[in-house]
Amino acid sequence: MRAVPWRHDLPASLVVLLVALPLCVGVAVASGVPAELGLVTGIVGGLVVGLLPGSSLQVSGPAAGLTVLVAEAVQRFGIGALGPLVLGTGLLQLAMGALRLGRWFRAMSASVVHGMLAGIGLTLVSGQLYALADRRAPGTGPQKLAGLPALLTDAATAAANPSAVALGLGTLLVLVGWKHLPARAARSVPAPLAVVGLAAAVTAAADLPVARVRVAGLLDVVQLPEPATLGALVGTAGLGTVVAFTLIASAETLFSAAAVDRMHHGPRTDYDRELTAQGLGNTVCGLLGALPMTAVIVRSAANVQAGARTKAARFLHGLWLLLFTALLPGALGLVPLTALAAVLVHAGAKLVPVRRIAALCRGHRGEALVLGATAVAIVATDLFEGVLIGVGLAVVKSAWQTSHLQIAVEELVLTSGRPLRRVRLSGNATFLRLPRLLDTLERLPGDRPVELDWSGLRHLDHACTLALTSWADQHRARASAPLAVEPPLPTVV
């Protein structure tokens, strides 16, 4: 590593620590695992991935984008199976990096990506609203949404824990308004850290009856994969979870890298090396039984905005996380869960790209439809199936748009005085346009000669060739006037 520019990277690493600390804990709690496992992933993201080549300034750790999927995996397979699932994710990412597949993630439809983030955000918000009221969230996305009216009624009538509701809403309001504070010194403190610290202080001072983070040592929660837990990797459910972890973690990492590259003028990201670095990080996390990691845009942006120049800043942030959890583990036990829920509600809401959706509705309604359908599918099913549905819709939309076919029917009179009806085809004739094409041709009367000109076609697929040949034979059989085809129809066997 080059000489460390301590004047820039040291303070930047402390800023990233302050942003990462509450997020590591909050993501772990929302995923249904001990808070320390989120810190383990953050430490590995700093100490391991932070030293590897790929991207110099983006920071890795547990991400809100995988919270829903991790919670489903823990509920289905048990917390002991989390290590093998994350280990499988890391090994698959290493293989993809070795095959230089990192750059292919840049080909993902932007609408699918934003739809994925919107679906994750909606699921995260709907689930964490229950935690904000000190309630247990239902298991599925539709059940969470269906239960919100009753939850709001309970919160308004004090049937839910009033202390938790008041503290959570207060935390959320302070979090939203933090950037509008007049004091610049106050705004320099990361909002998540400030609101969690304030909530912990209020809880301790007033001795509020709210649930708090349960604390154990790092060594107490680290679990090496056991042979009995490897069974989670057998079967379509386990393999599907590994593939989902891999695709979402890799996509979020590489999309984050593209965003971070636009924020600074330093070295650009090597996508294949970054994918390999993430694979190694997730392999280590899997061996430790921790959460899966991705590069996180919130921490990465904080790192860049704080003035970091090299990868030393992200390595140091991992070191500070390790020292904090080793020296001050009891401090986490003061944090109320409702405050962490408020932080995640705020983070989830920011994942919903409201402005982009509005812009797409004005100018690209097809893209807006793909985005909305992806988000709804994720909420209604799960992350993996929702993304697959979104990708399928994006492919269908692209196929439909690229199969433009122009059909022009011209009524002509030849120099001999003989009338002629000419049908000109141009563009791309694919099976997607067959209904319109055949409807036009079958409406042609047989009382005058027809000339079918398809010399302007750039592409003609096999289905259209068969359909046109069949129509031509039928037209000749029933029409009294001749049919001319230019160029001649090929012989179809």
Automatic annotation (TrEMBL):
<feature type="transmembrane region" description="Helical">
    <location>
        <begin position="158"/>
        <end position="178"/>
    </location>
</feature>
<feature type="transmembrane region" description="Helical">
    <location>
        <begin position="190"/>
        <end position="210"/>
    </location>
</feature>
<feature type="transmembrane region" description="Helical">
    <location>
        <begin position="111"/>
        <end position="133"/>
    </location>
</feature>
<protein>
    <submittedName>
        <fullName>SulP family inorganic anion transporter</fullName>
    </submittedName>
</protein>
<feature type="transmembrane region" description="Helical">
    <location>
        <begin position="368"/>
        <end position="396"/>
    </location>
</feature>
<keyword id="KW-1133">Transmembrane helix</keyword>
<feature type="transmembrane region" description="Helical">
    <location>
        <begin position="318"/>
        <end position="347"/>
    </location>
</feature>
<feature type="transmembrane region" description="Helical">
    <location>
        <begin position="37"/>
        <end position="57"/>
    </location>
</feature>
<feature type="domain" description="SLC26A/SulP transporter">
    <location>
        <begin position="7"/>
        <end position="373"/>
    </location>
</feature>
<dbReference type="InterPro" id="IPR011547">
    <property type="entry name" value="SLC26A/SulP_dom"/>
</dbReference>
<dbReference type="Pfam" id="PF00916">
    <property type="entry name" value="Sulfate_transp"/>
</dbReference>
<keyword id="KW-0812">Transmembrane</keyword>
<dbReference type="InterPro" id="IPR001902">
    <property type="entry name" value="SLC26A/SulP_fam"/>
</dbReference>
<keyword id="KW-0472">Membrane</keyword>
<feature type="transmembrane region" description="Helical">
    <location>
        <begin position="77"/>
        <end position="99"/>
    </location>
</feature>
<feature type="transmembrane region" description="Helical">
    <location>
        <begin position="230"/>
        <end position="258"/>
    </location>
</feature>
<dbReference type="Pfam" id="PF13466">
    <property type="entry name" value="STAS_2"/>
</dbReference>
<feature type="domain" description="MlaB-like STAS">
    <location>
        <begin position="423"/>
        <end position="478"/>
    </location>
</feature>
<feature type="transmembrane region" description="Helical">
    <location>
        <begin position="12"/>
        <end position="30"/>
    </location>
</feature>
<dbReference type="InterPro" id="IPR058548">
    <property type="entry name" value="MlaB-like_STAS"/>
</dbReference>
